[in-house]
Structure formats: structure tokens, C-alpha cells
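=== RUN LOG ===
request id: a7f3
mode: sequence -> structure
chains: 1
length: 201
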Amino acid sequence: MKDAEILKLFPEPIFKYKVDNFKDFNKELSKYIYQLKEDDEKKNITKSNKGGWHSPDFQIAQKDSIQNKFALAIQKYILNVCMHLGWKTENKQIRIASMWSIINKKDDFNVIHTHPNSFLSAAYYVKAPKNCGKFQVESLNTAKRYWYPEVKTKNELNMEVVGMFIEEGDLLIFPGYLPHKVSKNESDEDRIVISFNVDIR
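=== RESULT ===
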């Protein structure tokens, strides 16, 4: 019998880039984030983070600051994602609506969550030591969790959760509705990620 043609409809994309000059950016971004942590009066914001420190929003409009330079540098990656998705960009205001950082120490993690009211969301890795926690995505097909036969061989057609190893300088951009989480940091070093949301007006 001739093997079947498999039509993979409605894929859920995650775009992965290695940011240009990431080593220079990360050195300055790390300083900025640790200074934010030191100055943070609330000492934490709790959202998806279990343990760890969630920063207040970055002041990305502050001209010539490292966060402003970084926000400008990643515009080309955001536009590239919009192009691949076939979205209209002419005469549209495509902007980073909010940007923040999370520092996960040993045993810290992030529970499953989405970013409502955002067309795109992202994770950029400032510091990512070995075994610091995978970026994980859950299938939107919830039926698989409740009514599905026993799986013999794991493959892309039956997986419910996919984990990705990440490295410093990696930028992941994905639809804001995609459920994602971060596994436990099993290293003895900090894991530093910058997240942001994108809207289009």
C-alpha cells in the first residue's frame, strides 16, 4: 500500500531567531535587569511565576537606554514574523505594548499561561545556563487530554506538550494565545528571560 499523504492543517508556529550582537546586548541588559531588581520596592510581581522575580514593565521609551536600543533592534524580527504569518503591516502601528523580565533561581518555574489581548508574545534569553528549564508549549487541542487512545510512539501528531531547549541570545516569538510554561530551573545559576507583547493598531 502506498503511504498516506499527511496534510498538516492549522499549524501553531513558534519563530526562533538568534539575535544579532546578543552578547553585547545581554551584558547591558543583565546590568539593567539586576538594577531593576535592586530598586524594586514591591520586590516581586506574581503572575505565572512560581518563585523567581518578575520585574515591573521596562521603560522602553527611554531614549538611548539599553532597553530602548533592544526594543528597536528586535523590530525586524517582529516584522519578519508578521510577514510569514501573512498579516497586513502597511499603514499599521505594530508596537511592543509591554516588556518585562523574570529571573528564575534554582527550583523556580512558570505555570501554564497565555498572553490575552496580544497578537504576539515573545521570550528572549539573557542568561540561560545548562538545565535552567525548558520552554514548553501545550497543544490547543484539549480533546487529546480526555479522549485519546494509548500512544505507542511519540510524534508531532500526538504530542500534548513540547519542550524546547534554549540558549542565550535566542528569541522566540509566538501567538499570544498559545499556552506555554517554563520547567523548573535545575541549575545553580539564574535564568534571565525578557518577555514582551506585541499589538497591531
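=== NOTES ===
The domain at 15-200 is CATH 2.60.120.620 (Jelly Rolls).
The radius of gyration is 18 Å.
=== END ===
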